[in-house]
Structure formats: structure tokens, C-alpha cells
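Good morning C.,

I know you're traveling, so I'll keep this short. The sequence:
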Amino acid sequence: MAKVKILIVEDEVVIADHISMILEHLGYEPLRPVIDYDKAVESIEENLPDLAILDVQLKGYKDGIDLAWKIKEDYDFPFIFLTSNADGMTIERAKKVNPPAFLVKPFKKEDLFTSIELALHNYAQVKDAPSSNTENLIIKDAIFVKQQDLYLKVRLDDILYLKSDRVYIDVFTTDQKKYLIRASLSDILERLPKHFYRTHRSFIINAQKIEAINSAYVVIGTEKIPIGKNYRQDLLSRIQVE
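The C-alpha cells, ready to paste straight into the viewer:
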């Protein structure tokens, strides 16, 4: 599984470096810390983080709360507020963004870990709920996958299977390529043809690509895709396994 990329937006360099060190020790991938709103937006555009830790009281014309709104409206990934002695008005502004967590300086390593994992989990739960507002990535016979500043067309017939990886989905194709999209399996499945089946909470398969199957997994190419117990009966009946 790919490491979770975390952006630190903190204008006190010593604190930012300390957080970065803790994140690395916990097994995350800390991006280079940035100190203000503009640098944060540049880093987001370049690195596509999975989560951000935002100091509420950033110096400059825009603070961490402004950045949180920007993330929520334009990029849609989870964030955690970092604060020390913020005044009541600032806290009220921060609460309106509905952050998954507040971390109060100084904090323990365990508190940081818990806040990150809860933020990622809650975000994934929300994304996994069906929504009519989800970006339409699929039209007729193809799915469009963003690669830098372009959307590449990937034919549905070329897809072998899809695998959930936290807040992303890996799309594996017949030409042995892997594409990354930010979406939930539930939303994607609603828009895929009927021969795409969910076999596991983390997998969707193209049933037309199945080469072998038993009660535990399906074989597609060189991969064994697990069949979860909650999906087994429905899957086996739909493909008429005797």
C-alpha cells in the first residue's frame, strides 16, 4: 500500500520539522513543510497530498482557515487544524469548516497518529456513501483519469480490476498500466456496466476478464483478487458458478 502523503503548513520551522520527523517515524510520507497559504497551494497542485496539517494562525494575508476552505472547495481531501492559544473568534471561524480534528500544541505522538487515522477514516466513509454530486468520471465506454493537466481516456473494456487504496482507487488495465483516481468504489460502481462486480470491500472486477474462480478468489491475469464473505454468494450466483 502506498504511504499516505501529508502536507504540513506551519510557519514555525522548528515545529514543522518536528512534526515531519514524527510523521516519518509513524510510517507516513511527509511532504516538504510550507509556511504560508500560497506555498501550500503550490505544493497541493504539485504533490496531491492525501491529508494536510494546517496551523490555524498562519502569518500573511490568509490563514489556515482560509486554506481549509480552499482545500474543501477545490481539492477535496481531509485536513487537521493545529492550534495553540487561538481566540474565540478564530475558533468559531475554524469550526465552520467542519475539520475532522483539532490538535492543540504541544501534542503527543499518539494524539497526532489518532487524529490522522480518524480524519482519513471519516473522509473515506463519507466518500464511500453514494452521492449525486460526485464528479462524473465515466461516459458510455470509458473512464477519464487525470494525469497532470490532462484527462486520459481509459476504455472500460481495457480495465481488469479496481482496487481501493484509502482515499484513492488504483485502476489496473490490460496493458499492465495502473492509473490513480480520487473517488470511492461505491460511486464508481454505480456508474460502471453490470459486468463490473464488487468482490471485496477493496476490489471491483471486470467479470469479462475472469480466467478462474473459487470461493476465495478470482484469477484475472496473474492476480488473485479476494472474494469477501459478504460478496461471495451474490458474485457466484451472478456468474452462475456450479
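Safe travels,
E.
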